[in-house]
Specification:
Blueprint (H helix, E strand, L loop, with lengths): L2 H11 L6 H20 L2 H18 L11 H18 L14 H13 L4 H12 L2 H12 L4 H8 L3 H21 L4 H6 L2 H4 L10 H6 L1
Length: 214
């Protein structure tokens, strides 16, 4: 969806709640994928996503357009709702993905599920992500797993792009330290095929090559 179309839809939805459906259809997959990556449970991610769109619909009249559009605002709400879900319940086992999901949404979730696969290193990274500052986890998840730009992340977090880059670098180093404490040195992580195993992403949290690209 281009920004002009998105802007028209936001304006229409602020006056007619039924027009919000097009925005929901456009972004539900990305928000569900994001919350699933944060929470590791489909049930919890579905709850956080539902609350995200419910609150977005209620507050859309207060949304003010900025250069990266509507998605960063949704990510900000989703981050808050994911934190609320975590506070309400202890994190349990991963929930299987239901078969009835629409194709594009299921595709995004299957990619997210790869990041929470049964591989030993993936589990170690999930634990490491849970230990870092929630703001840093938001940045790492959006950039390295969702593929969002620093501009989108900066708008979603309400900070400057330069601050996002600095926080991303520091977060990667922190993740690297946590993984090393668990026995994952750089060579072992590389040999385990981590870069190929998580979304095919070459910029993998915990590897020095990733920090060098920032």
């Amino acid at each position: 969806m281009d920004k002009n179309q998105e802007r028209r839809l936001v304006k229409a939805a602020s006056k007619d709640p039924q027009a919000f459906g097009a925005l929901y259809d456009a972004y539900v997959g990305r928000i569900l994928s994001y919350t699933y990556r944060l929470l590791g449970s489909f049930t919890d991610a579905e709850e956080a996503t539902s609350e995200t769109f419910y609150k977005a619909l209620r507050a859309i009249g207060r949304f003010r357009w900025r250069r990266c559009g509507f998605l960063p605002w949704l990510y900000r709400i989703a981050a808050n709702e994911s934190a609320n879900v975590q506070r309400r319940r202890a994190k349990g086992a991963e929930s299987p993905l239901p078969d009835q999901l629409p194709g594009p949404v299921r595709d995004e979730l299957e990619e997210a599920e790869a990041a929470w696969s049964g591989r030993e290193l993936a589990r170690a990274l999930a634990r490491a992500l849970a230990e870092i500052d929630p703001r840093d986890r938001h940045i790492v998840t959006l950039h390295y797993f969702q593929g969002e730009t620093y501009a989108v992340i900066a708008q979603s977090a309400g900070v400057k792009e330069s601050a996002v880059r600095v926080r991303a670098m520091r977060a990667l180093r922190k993740l690297e330290q946590i993984l090393e404490m668990e026995g994952w040195n750089h060579g072992r992580a590389h040999d385990a095929g981590w870069a190929a195993g998580v979304d095919g992403c070459a910029e993998v949290p915990g590897l020095p090559e990733a920090a060098a690209r920032l």
